[in-house]
Amino acid sequence: MAAPKRGRSASAQSKPGRSLALILIAIVALTGGMFASGNTTPRLGIDLAGGTSITLQAENEPGQPNAINKTNMNTAVAIMNRRVNGLGVSETEVQTQGTSNIIVNIPRGTNSEEARQQVGTTAKLYFRPVLATEASGAAATTSPSPSASSSSSAKSTDKPKATSSSSASPSATATSQGRAVTDALKADSTPSATATSSAKASASPSPSASGSSAASDAAAKLQAQYAALDCTKKTAQTTAGKNAKATEPTVGCGKISGVWYKYVLGPARVDGTDVKKAQAVFDTQTAAGWQVQMTFTGSGAKKFADVTAELAKNSQPPQNEFGIVLDGEVVSSPTVAQSITGGQAEISGSFTQTEAQSLANVLSYGALPLSFRTESVTTVTAALGGQQLHAGLLAGAIGLALVVIYLVAFYRGLSLIAIPSLLVSGILTYVIMSLLGPAIHFALNLPAVCGAIVAIGITADSFIVFFERIRDEIREGRTLRPAVERAWPRARRTILVSDFVSFLAAAVLFIVTVGKVQGFAFTLGLTTVLDVVVVFLFTKPLMTLVARRKFFASGHKWSGLDPKGLGAKAPLRRTRRPAGPVAGPVDPKEA
Hints:
Strand content: 15-25%
Number of domains: 3
Largest sheet: 6 strands, antiparallel
Distance between the termini: 42 Å
Number of strands: 15
């Protein structure tokens, strides 16, 4: 039974090239993906690339002593993410720290004062009547038309699937659309509609005539803004209606099912603070799917009943819609079929769970009993970040050089295995970090660089464990090739246990910490996993190959495996067993 086992072992040892080919193919594929994506360098964190770090302290509003909780803080983070991303910053980090702090890290290229104002002020949520709307940009036609919507027999229905409705319904001319907007704005103004005739009867315009003229000018100005608005442009999305007063009509942008729409919105009729509670629920009784349920305060219930009664009188969209506007952006525009009384309402439509929860979070934030105080604003210049990066890379280079010197001096020829292994580990780490930047927004900060430097020692330690096990086998009198195969199972067990402890420490550190410390933990965990991959797929197969070379197999004094230098015992040899007693009769003479 021993012969087949030796045959299988010899077969396994004779094909280490498979493992080497596998890891080389992985390196080529990952490197090719890095160059193909254009992300040839790791994404740098704020402390290396420069930028602004803002620390916000949450405070309870009067009469709300327990408002600082996980749900409210997460909702605030979601809204702040919308704000800073609206500034055109795609690499911003917004996260909670502890129970009452929010950290906002904004890379360079963004005005720090503007960013501070964006994240430090409370969001403004309003319910505004929709006066006009149409698809914007490439999705729009020269003749705008009302957006398609469906009415619910219940209270109100959102239209999450409202796409390009200009081809689905008869389109109005630009002139009639403009007249509809102007008439709607005049209807909302206080001056009388007969102000024009009064002006003709008098040489000096009366107060009512002046008011009517001002309203007409405001309507014309708003109509011009609406005609020029292109909501497919990032600047328009972030500025349209941003600073509009609640008591005045305005324009706005909103995205529905991937299509940007532009709106003319009337004065705010319901404030976000009038919403007492909002939540996403799944309707199992009527099979309506996901919907958002709202509960209003006492005063909010009356306001909402009044505005829905007015909107329900119009059967033609969009005059029967109200826009839910957060920081100038129309996040939803439900239609109204009837007056909604009782202080409770629901928005239903073809919502996914994510869409319903997102809308519920927006509505909840309008009544969020939290305000934020700016604790600190730290600005890191690009020059300072460059100096820190240079210092980190210099420290890493010095550490790597010391490790290489130690390997060459102590292990001599075995360094020809350890150094390429370190190089492969470094290439994999660099390429994966570059790919993780756009994939999961991983940013290489200074603690992450420290984690990579620490990983050099962890990786070198795995090689040393393996080499020392081989040396122990040679000291026992074995030749190199069997020594490598006998040393590997014991070294493998030690390496796995050591790396598991390191990975467990990195995982715990990543979970219980926040901010930049997570960068250290993530890098340490990543390099620990790569250490196992490199040792199993590169170092061990390479060692198996070089063990067949005369320079190493003969135990050359510069190979690092010289039996004499290691104090090895005499080679193990098989000895013949002494012959046993001979069976049969014994010659009396010999006796």
